[in-house]
Amino acid sequence: MSAENMYENILTELKNNIFYITINREVKLNALNIQTLSEIKNAILSIYNNSEVRGVILTGSGKKAFAAGADIAEFADFNVEQGTKLSADGHIVLRAIENCPKPVIAAVNGFALGGGNELAMSCHMRVAAENAKFGQPEVNLGLTPGYAGTQRLPQLIGKGKAFEYLMTADIMDAQTALNLGLVNHVVPADHLIEKCEEILNKIKTKSPLAIASVIRCVNAHYEKRADGNEFEVNEFGNFFGSEDFIEGTKAFMERRPANFKGN
Ligand code: COA
User: Fold this and answer.
1) Candidate from 28, 35, 78, 141 with most ligand 1 atoms within 8 A of CB, to mutate
2) Residue located nearest, by CA, to atom 21 of ligand 1
3) Which residues contact 195 (CB under 8 A, 6 or more apart)?
């Protein structure tokens, strides 16, 4: 079975070294039920060691929503045990995205609410369409965010603003999200994927080893048990044994573009 048709709730495609994942539950505004999250996790893990893939774009189908949250209908009757498992499993999915050795960009094409915003925040970058809307409205449901929204929102927009949005459930427009640092760029909706491709095409010219290391080093800073500075020192030192490092420095001195092989 080809990668294109092995999932029920997402679409996947590999084109020009970019892996596209599209959440495909448009009638439910791409709400993230358990199956959808599990498919996203499997899709991401499937490209971890695929050297053909140099970047990932994650988006939602249709023009209205990236993902309007966890699937409220699915969890409405869950008990404490089920609710705890829902959150723990969601954390695993989002960590698989955050730790993906290839750059992952969320192309936010509409509502990114609750779990949808948390999913976008687990990506390395976010590009928003002008009509995108962001928020953590869980408190409206008598809930706290369950997919690390309380952790990643302060990391991206600062503690004070994060408290405000987490506690008021206010919805943020794309321009505000840009001003606060939640998204990297805001573009017209019909240029959304193109903008993500432009960023990934630039990254594609760099050493995949160096890009994977940047992801590990930055993530190490936020990993409570790890010292990011110490982590970076070790990562940096290891490059002195890689062929890409030798090629990169040689190319610089020979005033030519580097030809990285990922070794
Ligand atoms: N979970 C489950 N279903 C959802 C959903 C969610 N998070 N968000 C939207 N849907 C469903 C709706 O139930 C509706 O399904 P139906 O047609 O079978 O009734 C469909 O998607 C369309 O949504 P609708 O509410 O009719 O669209 P709208 O344009 O009136 O409103 C929103 C859009 C995003 C403002 C609204 O859907 C909403 O508030 N969603 C929930 C957001 C939220 O609280 N997310 C956090 C969850 S933890």
Assistant:
1) 28
2) 28
3) 107, 127, 185, 187
Q: Does residue 231 sit in the same domain as residue 178? A: no
Question: What confidence score (pLDDT) does residue 3 get?
Answer: 47
> How much distance in Å is there from the Cα of 92 to the middle of ligand 1?
24
Claim to verify: residue 123 and residue 29 sit in the same structural domain: yes
118 is catalytic: yes
261 within some domain: no
Q: Please list the ranges in the chain whose pLDDT falls under 70.
A: 1-5
Rounded to a whole number of angstroms, the distance between the first and last alpha carbons of the chain is 31
Range of the domain at 247: 208-253
> Position of tokens 């949005």?
165
Number of domains in the chain: 2
| Cα(126) to centroid(ligand 1), Å | 22
The pocket around ligand 1, CB under 6 angstroms, is made up of 28-29, 31, 68-73, 111, 113-115, 137-138, 141
Query: What pLDDT is stored for residue 226 in this prediction?
Result: 73
Same domain flag for 49 and 19: yes
SS3 153: helix
> How many CB atoms neighbour CB 84 within 10 A?
12
Instruction: Please confirm, yes or no, whether 138 is among the known catalytic residues.
Output: yes
pLDDT of residue 1: 38
| Res 171: pLDDT | 98
Q: Quote the tokens at residue 232.
A: 């970076």
